[in-house]
Amino acid sequence: MERKVVNVGYGKVRRVSIGERLPLVFIGGPCAIESREHAFKMAKDIEVICQKIGIDWIYKSCYDKDCRSSPTSFHGVGIDEGLKILSDVRDEFGLPVVSDFSDSTWGPSTGEVCDLVQVPAYLCRQTSILRSAAKTGKPVLLKKGQFMSPWNMKNSVRKLESHGCNQIILADRGTFFGYNMLVNDMTCFPIMAATGYPVCFDAGHSIQLPTSMGNISGGQREFIPHLVRSATANGINALFMEVHDNPDKALSDANTVLDIKYLENILYQAKKVHELRLELLDKLGEDNVHPKK
Amino acid sequence: MNIKDVMLSLDKFPVVTKDVIFKEVLEEMGNKKLGIACVVDENYKLLGILTDGDIRRKILSIQKPLSSIFIDDCLDHAILSPKTISIDDPIIMAVNLMGENKIWDLPVVENGILKGLLHLHPLVNSLLKSK
Fold first, then answer.
1. Which site from A5, A141, A216, B106 is most exposed, i.e. has the minimal number of CB atoms within 10 Å?
2. Distance from CA of A292 to the nearest CA of B (A)
3. Residues of B contacting chain A (CB within 8 angstroms)
């Protein structure tokens, strides 16, 4: 199986390569764009931490949160204002950026600005969204739906490929375990990596308790470090975490975003575990426990 | 009578490309009512075969959910060096090969390219008619 490398970044921003045997990449930022000032502050603060640790990263924030449980929840700043802010973050910090999009007609403008376009987990098998993502010509971050088996993600991969996309990152954000509960099946990473594409772990959403609070989702942030260490040791190529400077006041996913004060500690561990895994692979070779035929 | 006269043409038995999923191969075997599928590349080079017997053994052997096996590329589970017969070989050679290996299907190839399938039933019928 050919292992592919996904290259993110165009124009004047720094290039980030994601793939097996490459350094771990961080994808993060506030769940939703709240304001220009806040977006810039978060980019600046995260950049300082990533520079200190020595980890490449991609700024993530969304302009429209279309999967809110409540009709009164913050929906986002909107596509025009949001993409302008993301474009300014690119220019100001030289960072590649990613946003998801929930309506196929938003694909072209999202792809025009963003270095990486994200397909939301709930929409991971929607042909119109996948077609629109592929047509942007940008790499695609494809979240595994909470309701999907990792092996069935191959169908979504093939939909993207059929529309010309061969730069795909597959991400796990947990799998439904009954109602209002998610679990992480760590075998999903080698299973999805068998497509040949890099794999990513979304730690913040994995500790989510979907719509457990009646009209919003809860979450158990205390498990983020545990899951990050597990997933990184397992063999992910990118780590995704939403980060906020004041989670209690976050306008989206307040119960799952990570307080930025913990970011350095967690990223440091993730980087070290990732490097140890690569070191062991160099020393011992690839895993040689083969399945029954 | 030679192999070319008796073999099934390519449209009469399951022929699939390597990235067709396992479940679709099973459907094609059902549609064509044959217990063998030949896996080929875009130039019809024979890459492997799947037979009813191979599939029975795999279902018992592979320790993963059936839904997971269904989405696998068929080549992942194919027998990669199957017994074949050349289109120019004598029929008696094919009959002996089937008997020795207890098989009733032989892909017919010419320089590695799949040309047809020798299936035991039409072969026997042809031999009986020719007596």
1. A5
2. 5
3. 58, 61-65, 67-68, 71-72
pLDDT at A4: 97
**How is chain A split into domains, by residue range?**
24-283
Query: Which pLDDT belongs to residue B14?
Result: 98
Are residues B13 and B39 in contact, defined by beta-carbon separation less than 8 angstroms?
no
A200, pLDDT greater than 70 = yes
Contacts 24+ apart (CB under 8 A), A247-251: A247/A221, A250/A30, A250/A31, A250/A32, A250/A34, A251/A32, A251/A34, A251/A74
When pLDDT is cut at 50, 70 and 90, the band that residue A74 belongs to is confident
Which pLDDT belongs to residue B113? 97
Closest B-chain CA to A154: B71
Q: In the prediction, which pLDDT does B94 show?
A: 94
Whether ipTM exceeds 0.95: no
Rounded Cα–Cα distance for residues A217 and B81 (Å): 54
- On whether the CB atoms of residues B71 and A152 are closer than 8 A, the answer is yes
- Restricting to A residues 135-164, those with a Cβ less than 8 Å away from any Cβ of B are 149, 151-152, 154-155
C-alpha distances out from residue B19 to A155, A263, B24, B50, B79, Å = 12, 42, 10, 14, 15
Contact criterion met (CB below 8 Å) for B56 and B37: no
Domains of chain B: 3-130 (3.10.580.10)
**Chain B contact present for A125, CB below 8 A:** no
pLDDT above 90 (res A104): yes
| A24-283 is a CATH 3.20.20.70 domain | yes
Q: Please give the single-letter amino acid code of residue A136.
A: T
